[in-house]
Structure formats: C-alpha cells, structure tokens
Amino acid sequence: MSKAVLLVNLGSPDSTATGAVRRYLNEFLMDRRVIDMPWPLRRLVVGLILINRPRAAAHAYRKIWTPDGSPLGVTSQRLQVGLHERVLLPVELASLPPKQLVELAGEDLRVLLGVQGRPVFTHHHFWPRAIPRETGRGPAGAEDAA
C-alpha cells in the first residue's frame, strides 16, 4: 500500500498589496465554514469588513512578510521539505481556501497521489470558537470531501 502526506493550510494573500489582501479576505471570509451565516447576511457582513480591514491587514502583513514571501507559505514549504526527509514519503502542500480545497479533494486525492487506503486527518487550530470542529463546520474541506 502506498502512503503520502498532504499538508493543508488556508493560505495567505499573494502579496502585501491592499488589493491582494482584499481578494484573500473576501474568499476566506465568504466560506460558510468561516462565517456561519446565511449567504445574504454573510455577504453583507463581509462587504462591511472589506471596507477598511484590507488596508489595515495589508499594513500588518508588511510588518511580518519575509523576502521569500508570506511567513505561513515559507514555513509550510520548509515543513514540507523537512517532513519528506524524515518520513521518506511523498509530502504535498496545499495552501488553499476551503472552497478550492473541497474541489481538489473532490477529484479524489488518493488517485492524484497514487495512494491506497483510508485518509487520516489531523488538524489543529488556534480559534476553537471560530472554527467549531465538533459541529463539523470548521474549514475542514479535505475532511468534507473525503
């Protein structure tokens, strides 16, 4: 039986430009798993957030952005390389918003990675009230699709 590791995170903006941060926040916040409201109300709330938050968030991203890119992206890539060296298995990295993650997982990751068997998921988050795993509504797109 073949095995592989898929590391997944929710990504980060493409750059520290306000427009890139606005696009990222819009896509992230419009996911029903992030803001658990009916779509029209969620669209209204996100629209209000997107008035000022992207500028402030872009400023904050500029403070932590590295020459190699976003800290999350750089750290995730280092983790991918280090884990591959340690476990000697294929290690793939997916930095996707939940909607795209569901689409990717829906293409049958086992076939894409040549893996047999049941997927095993471990996920850790830092905002347990914002991402209620016990209700199945957290941004666990890979779990949903599997």
List the helices and strands and how they pair.
Elements: E1 5-9, H1 18-29, H2 39-64, H3 71-87, E2 91-95, H4 98-106, H5 109-113, H6 141-145
Helix pairs in contact: 1-2
Strand content: 5-15%
Global structural class: mainly alpha
Total strand count, please? 2
Radius of gyration: 17 Å
Strand order of the largest sheet: 1-2
Helical proportion, percent range = 40-55%
Distance between the termini: 18 Å
Overall geometry comes to flat
Helices, by number, come to 6
Order of secondary-structure elements: EHHHEHHH
Question: Could you describe the 3D structure shown?
Answer:
The protein has 146 residues and is mainly α. The chain has one domain (5-145). It has helices at residues 18-29, 39-64, 71-87, 98-106, 109-113, 141-145; strands spanning 5-9, 91-95. A two-stranded parallel sheet has the order 1-2. The chain is flat. The two termini are 18 Å apart. Mean pLDDT is 77; it is low at 124-143.
Descriptive terms for the model:
mainly alpha, flat, 2 strands, single chain, 146 residues, 7% strand
